[in-house]
Amino acid sequence: MNIGLAMSVLFPNAVPNRDYVVMADGDQQWVDENQWYLDAPIPSAAELEAAYQKYLEQPAPDAGTSVEELQAGLTTTQQANSVLIKQLNEATEAVKKAKEDAETAHQIIAELIVLTTEKGVL
């Protein structure tokens, strides 16, 4: 028997290690009487066993998302990543082209300054 799980059935709103403490030593488990802060008596071994059996009879919690749903989400994410990578590559190329254009403009301006200086305009 797992006393912690039994306690979750008996006291669903209680917070373990705040409202009560379950001690364990090997296979032995017990509720620590010195760390019991609930306004109810400590359950007996029979009450704990019955609660644990009730816990075992409960339907398994919904696992949530199926493998197929996860795979579909992954595919969608991969497609979005591909689009983003393509956009990043395009932006990187645009920046590279802008830098090249700026360098060309800088060279043209430098040549114009030299020419205007040689012709006595400046």
Automatic annotation (TrEMBL):
Residue span(s) of domain Bacteriophage SP-beta YorD: 5-59
Coiled coil: 81-108
Chain ranges passing through the membrane: none
SUPFAM superfamilies reported in the protein's UniProt record: XkdW-like
Pfam families tied to this protein: XkdW (PF09636)
Keyword Zinc in annotation: no
InterPro entries attached to this UniProt entry: Phage_SP-beta_YorD (IPR019094), XkdW-like_sf (IPR035950)
Keywords, comma-separated and alphabetical: Coiled coil
Protein name: Bacteriophage SP-beta YorD domain-containing protein
Lineage, highest ranks first: Bacteria, Bacillati, Bacillota, Bacilli, Bacillales
